[in-house]
Amino acid sequence: MTIQKNDDASAPVLSVVIPCYNEGENVPLLFGRLMPALHGLGVTVEVICVNDGSSDDTLARLLAVQKSEPSLRIVDLSRNFGKEKALSAGLFHSRGQAVVPMDADLQHPPEVIGEMLAKWREGWDVVFARRDARTGQGMKERAFARAFYWVFDHLSDVRLPREVGDFRLMDRRVIDTINEMPERSRFMKGIFAWVGFNHTEIIYHQGERAAGTSKFSSIKLLRFAFDGLTSFSNFPLRVWGVIGAVISSLAFFYILFRIIRTLVWGIDVPGYESILVSVLFLGGMQLLTLGIIGDYLGRVFDEVKGRPLFIVRRLYEHDGRE
């Protein structure tokens, strides 16, 4: 994938990128709040909605909105590639001098985009939008999020800003840098943090989901968290060398103990239970180690194949171009 920097003087000042997967109910609600907020900014804007293989009427509703909103561009992917790839597609097609990714469910209030734009005009390359609370989440989800941030910060060289999701403003230089990154395992929160640049933040109140339900189950969230960790840390690989050394040391001292005991008290019959426990424990550790190595090896396999991050079936422009 060849990335070309956007030097077009006619490019919009602001691009808003919105991945959409089965968000048909939210489309009219979203644009009912988004467009008035953008029109009040006094700058040229474009809205890029990425239809990530939706099976409902998301695309039809987006096309209906496009008839009255010339700034809306629709990137229709050939299938469901997942939110991280859909977000990458939106960033790739963005042309604005500043870019704001946001969700389609209105948990990210479009009214705060103006505040982020003001910070950007002060010279900041990245403006984080930090939520003041996790609205609509129970104690289990909040505890899981805190645990993930703690583990990620201690095992990775990249620190994720607390309570900051994809909702942020990024300068064109930041977007061009992200688009040039060739990796296919796209943990976007980590990528956003890894590229650096000078940054500041604003505080916002996260709204309730406007309609529909979250597409992330507990299993998907757990897998997403593990993907994020293995994308930015090789600690899960290195730690097994330490564990192996500890187990080998314990086994060595146990062998010495058995030899000394045999020389002093003679040969006895070892217990069957201790042998069984040792075999099962070491076998389980080996299988767990192989599983983690297999996950990293699978990532290498995906990178070597070099398949594109996403496939665009059609790009809908307001002037009829595709």
TrEMBL record:
It is an enzyme of class 2 (transferase). CDD domains: DPM1_like_bac. It is a multi-pass membrane protein. This is Putative enzyme. The chain crosses the membrane at residues 239-260, 275-297. It is found in: Cell membrane. Belongs to the glycosyltransferase 2 family. GtrB subfamily. One of its GO terms (molecular function) is glycosyltransferase activity. Its EC number is 2.4.-.-.
